[in-house]
Task: structure prediction
Amino acid sequence: MADSSVTVTQRGRPPKGDQPMTAAERKRAQRQRDSRAITDGIGNEQNAPLRALLAILARVEASEAARLCAQRAWAEIGRRYGFVSVTEKPSTEKTPSRYTK
Result:
């Protein structure tokens, strides 16, 4: 009787390169994805992941633009989780008009 050798492949997804990534490489890749999601989420809060919205909220004191972006992020979080039913739109009534008659 001949010995037939059977090779058992490992379970799971195969590595992208020659070897699997180390824990440090996986964490570095995750940080890069998170950073990219934060920059992509600015101005596009409706499609941003929750982690990106929370990072936008953390930068609220950086500048006036960051504060406005944080307001939009907070409104989006409230819309997703149902604790904000109506958000205020900027009023144009208080804006001074250049065209006076």
Summary: The helical segments are 23-41, 50-58, 64-81. DSSP finds three helices and no strands in the chain. The mean pLDDT is 81. The CA atoms of residues 57 and 70 lie 5 Å apart.
